[in-house]
Amino acid sequence: MILLQAGYLLSFLFIKGSIQLVVCIITGNKDDLYRAIKRLCNVQNPVPSQVINVRTISTQYAKLRSIAQKILLQINCKLGGELWGVDIPLKQLMVIGIDVYHDPSRGKRSVVGFVASINPIVTRWYSRVVFQTPHQEIIDSLKVCLVAALQKFHEVNHHLPEKIVIYRDGVSDGQLKIVESYEIPQLEKCFEAFNNYNPKIVVFVVQKQISTNIYSSVGQQLLSPPPGTVLDHTATSQDWVDFYLIAHYSPQGCGIPTHYVCVRNTANLAPDHMQRLTFKLCHLYWNWPGTIRVPAPCKYAHKLAFLSGHILHHEPSIELCEKLFFL
To answer: Where does the signal peptide begin and end (predicted)?
Structure first.
């Protein structure tokens, strides 16, 4: 361990080119210092970083073992570790998560977070960030990201994926037709960059801001349904193949599901297979030892877009694209 004053960290990184990780322990709520460290390590001198507030490790002694374990697991991920996986029967598969963050401090410009799996068991991730001007179409950014992800997938596996499943967050009901009739055809044009390549694709729009709640009747009580509960009838759309999924555990109150709308399915996945795949992907978020509300690539894309738009105000270095540096 090397103790450095904040002003010497940049010089140290320039000198020590083989650094694998920077761990900074800071005092107090120093947002400016946190931002400076993240910009330095994610943009200027690309190296994974872990910032720890001294209060976290000095005031909760009873929880210190648990806190240390969580920090070490995060560090493991940032160094390229794969903490756990799930069995996904689909072979030669790429899974993609897309989310958009709107930066209010910079004229509401959009930041697109894009995360794609690049190995057969869906435990290695490739990420890209694109900053957009207020009037630029998001599809321009997505095309750049998709081509780069496919090239990386081929580099790792020596072949391209036969199936691509995309989870697109941040789309309202009124934009579904635009995604179906304009965005997806534009994405499919990316495949022309590769010889004789025409993969099957499945595209889901992920909607969290919904008014639907789901209850489970147990005796005389209405309780939150268990994780894995699916509603695919009665409350669903007549125009789309869609379903509601409660993937996470709600300790009290009603179960707030996530709504998934399938806007393209050239792979001909059956609804049951769509639901099972989506639920399995909710187990792969390595910042939490359980299921989360949305598939892991969606959550990773959200974390990436937020870090880039809210903290960095800049695209991260491309040298970090194969590590979960944004956890």
So the answer is: 1-24
